[in-house]
Write a structure and sequence with these properties.
Dihydrodipicolinate Reductase, domain 2, alpha/beta, 9-stranded mixed beta sheet, 321 residues
Length: 321
């Protein structure tokens, strides 16, 4: 089939990135930038050689849509796109609450349309490498802390925690049997009810567990992941794109010039699976969906598990004030 023509909705930080990646893609074309603010929308459209439209009425001749508008606008926009019969990639989270997210997923299934969520860490080279190396994890620990960003109005659970919940569920291969969480509300500029910190413990069958921490009031950007197995640990730095494997070995050795040692840790540094820029790898996956090269039902089914967990975190966590 011909290269699909794709519209990007929203010209904020993520929308502009999507527009750039589409412009540079060898598999799809950026056709339209949808943005109600004409000056802003035209600026991005002109930069990447696309048309501008103020709303979704300007989608004639479009093959698919990427929604990268503010989270609170996802629900209405996504349902409009589905109603127009177009495949859709919507930035995470799918919507700003669990029920709205499920409604979008259900609508896409009923219409038999491809739907993808922008859970970008699935295309992070370090995460993909660690996942391929993981055998039988018993504990996954993830930390995602960032400095404060006033432009983000969504609470940190939907904005950040969802990424690492998604990673943990995919590594363990199951949904949790219990979710315990605590939320913290601290920053004076945050929207009322939007949490700044979220700490959650997920319990799985067989005693397996995951601890996930997200914060938007950190003074240091941290993106770390640790996967513990019975006989080794896999440590991932998502920012530095590094994966390190640690194995403890009981050993006793002597040296000629002094005391020996009783234990040692073997450190392995594997070669990364090269995914390239995550947003470009994600776009390739979306184009595969649009072209029918991958299972759309399977992709759709992968969206809601992490959303269900984050929904439980937000709904059940005791409030820390």
């Amino acid at each position: 089939m011909a290269r699909p023509s794709i519209a990007v909705v929203g010209t904020g930080s993520m929308g502009s990135l999507h527009a750039r990646v589409l412009h540079n893609s060898g598999r799809a074309d950026l056709a339209v930038v949808v943005e109600p603010r004409q000056e802003v929308g035209r600026t991005v459209a002109d930069r990447f050689g696309a048309a501008w439209a103020p709303d979704l009425d300007g989608l004639s001749g479009i093959d698919a849509v990427i929604i990268a508008a503010a989270t609170h606008a996802h629900h209405g926009l996504a349902l409009q796109v589905i109603d127009a019969g177009l495949p859709l990639l919507v930035e995470k989270p799918v919507a700003d609450d669990l029920a709205k997210s499920q409604e979008i997923v259900d609508a896409s299934e009923k219409a038999d349309l491809p739907l993808m969520c922008g859970l970008l860490e699935r295309y992070n080279s370090a995460v993909v490498t660690a996942a391929q190396l993981t055998r039988e994890p018993v504990h996954v620990s993830a930390v995602r802390h960032s400095p404060y960003a006033p432009r983000i109005k969504t609470g940190v659970a939907w904005d950040l925690l969802v990424h690492d919940v998604d990673i943990a569920l995919r590594l363990i291969g199951d949904e949790p049997t219990a979710v315990d969480a605590t939320l913290g509300y601290f920053h004076p500029a945050s929207v009322p009810g939007a949490e700044d910190m979220a700490e959650s413990l997920l319990s799985f069958a067989g005693g397996r567990m995951a601890s996930v921490s997200a914060s938007r009031i950190g003074q240091q950007k941290i993106r770390s992941l640790r996967i513990t197995e019975v006989d080794r640990a896999i440590e991932v730095d998502l920012l530095r794109q590094s994966v390190t494997i640690y194995r403890h070995v009981d050993a006793e050795a002597a040296t000629e010039d002094g005391p020996g040692y009783r234990q040692q840790t073997v450190i392995e540094i594997p070669t990364l699976v090269q995914m390239g820029e995550p947003l470009a790898a994600q776009l390739d996956r979306f184009v595969d969906l649009v072209e029918g090269r991958v299972d759309a039902a399977q992709e759709r089914a992968s969206i809601m598990p992490a959303h269900r967990v984050v929904g439980a975190v937000v709904a059940s966590a005791p409030v820390l004030v």
